[in-house]
């Protein structure tokens, strides 16, 4: 992992400041890295509780998450909604997934073509059900869009899309009207590498990220 200065980017995640390490992706790009699987049980519990609170009133019947980093999010959101069963969409074909429903992930940021897979034996868990789709980060929006397509192909209604963080702004265009379904606990910008340092990419910053907070009182 190639780290870059400044060492950390601080982001508010559900009311707590979280320091994310800065990672250089290539000559031009860097990201503030959120590895939810490395952040411990207290973090997983906190984000699960906070996202579940956003969706509870919609009375979802099942939570769907994408492997790998969406797995702890799906488990913790389910737990806090009082749901036992959850459903994971896989990225790599496993033996038992020979006959899976498949959706391409149209991502411009990954070098290899990717896809999301839904085990056909799990379709009954989704058919006619009210579903929340979750992931760790929504960046390009390509993974979330593919997950929503799969879930809808299986006959479910998507009530919402939950994520720990949104990254940049590209996801809004990729998700189109589904962007309105997104519930996030925080947001991060994207970064450009300039003189060996990560600098905030102004084009990735949401207008409301730089807008001063309204003064109360
Ligand atoms: N900043 C980030 N951290 C972890 N996973 C990501 N996927 C896309 N952006 C990410």
UniProtKB/TrEMBL annotation:
Span of the signal peptide: none
Highest taxon of the lineage: Bacteria
Domain Phosphoribosyltransferase: residue ranges: 41-173
Protein name: Adenine phosphoribosyltransferase
Alphabetized UniProt keyword annotations: Glycosyltransferase, Transferase
Database matches in CDD domains: PRTases_typeI
Gene3D superfamilies named among the record's database cross-references: 3.40.50.2020
Alphabetical list of SUPFAM superfamilies matching this protein: PRTase-like
GO molecular function, one term: glycosyltransferase activity
């Amino acid at each position: 992992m190639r780290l870059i200065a400044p060492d950390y980017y601080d982001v508010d995640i559900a009311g707590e400041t979280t320091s994310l390490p800065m990672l250089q992706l290539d000559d031009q790009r860097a990201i503030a890295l959120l590895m939810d699987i490395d952040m411990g049980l207290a973090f997983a519990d906190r984000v699960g509780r906070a996202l579940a609170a956003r969706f509870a009133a919609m009375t979802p019947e099942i939570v769907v998450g994408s492997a790998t980093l969406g797995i702890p999010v799906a488990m913790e959101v389910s737990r806090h909604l009082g749901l036992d069963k959850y459903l994971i969409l896989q990225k790599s074909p496993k033996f038992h997934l020979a006959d899976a429903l498949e959706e391409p992930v149209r991502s411009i940021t990954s070098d290899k073509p990717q896809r999301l897979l839904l085990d056909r034996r799990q379709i009954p868990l989704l058919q006619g059900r009210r579903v929340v789709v979750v992931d760790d980060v929504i960046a390009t929006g390509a993974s979330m869009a593919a997950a929503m397509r799969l879930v809808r192909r299986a006959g479910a209604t998507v009530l919402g899309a939950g994520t720990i963080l949104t990254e940049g702004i590209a996801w809004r265009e990729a998700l189109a009207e589904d962007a309105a379904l997104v519930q996030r606990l925080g947001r991060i910008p994207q970064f450009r590498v300039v003189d060996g340092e990560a600098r905030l990419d102004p084009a990735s910053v949401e207008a409301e990220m730089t807008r001063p907070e309204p003064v109360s009182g």
